[in-house]
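Final report, Chapter 2: Outcomes

The project's central promise was a pipeline that accepts a single protein chain and returns its three-dimensional structure in a standardized token representation, suitable for archiving and comparison. That pipeline is now operational. To close this chapter, we reproduce one record exactly as it appears in the project archive, with the input sequence first and the structure output second.
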Amino acid sequence: MTTLTISSLTKDFKGTSVLKGIDLTMQSGEFVSLLGPSGCGKTTLLRCIAGLESPSGGTIEIDGTDVTNLPPEKRHLGMMFQSYALFPHMSVVENVRFGLRMSGEKSKVEQKALAVRALERVQMGHLADRSPAQLSGGQQQRVALARAIAFEPRVLLLDEPLSNLDARLREDMQIELKELHRTLGLTTVFVTHDQEEAMSLSDRIVLMNGGVVEQEGAPAELYGSPKTSFAADFIGAANLLPASRAGAVATLDGASVSIPLTHAGADGAGSVMLRQEDLRLASAVGTHTPVGVEIVTQVYRGADLVYVVELAGQRVRVVRPRHEEVLPAGPAALGWRDGSALWITG
């Protein structure tokens, strides 16, 4: 099993700082997602780990050995790219065998056996003699994954491998990736901009923003206790309402609406975070819906409906199950689950 340690890692491109002192430790067998918007540095960090980019400063260690200046082929890492990068003139099994052949560490017979074994692990052994052109997008994805794990790498690196798949196939492959990780136990670093993907796959999420780590932790921790407004908005698209805090109560800016707070925090200006699913919406003001609002519109999503309401000059999103009464545009009332309001100052 393998640990991966990144210390004070920086990367500059033509005077622009892309990574600004990254410190991370990935435990043996852990599935870690690097999550964030385009340009946050997550792919650059992955490429530095792989040896495809040279960091400007800092170190990368695998099991305590400094690999910062080693070429990719000396790091014994498996990598799967977004484009899959399969060779069209090679059969499926030869594509998988390619990395083994380049390393020269195994005999031809051993290389073939390892390639076949990797294909069987991703349920592609029966298509070993096909060409990539004869495969669907999902099958090509599995072949690329088989190639990445064929030589039993110390760390598996995945660069947005599911982004080219349609929604249903992406969901299927998330399940297969999770099961493969459970079976192989590989230390895995997964790059994605999709927060739902990161939430469903990861033991730990590293949320990046502007070349730094904004927050890291288990999916439930980042979702339930975001430390900054960026984290709250990126993970789960929370409602963030400007407010002022005094003790255990926040008062929304521009309205006489007070919201009890159960978490500690300093008095002053900040934002109240309310998750869409923690809000209640009704046709009239009542015990559990004390605040008058205006329903602007609604979006039907199958399993639920998303309502957009106006409160204190802010647009607020509310999720309600499809089996509840459908409310028309116009006056309504809003409430929230006890203890669900979180105070954020960052």
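Archive annotation: The two ends are 37 Å apart (CA to CA).
This record, like all others produced under the grant, will remain available to the consortium after the project formally closes.
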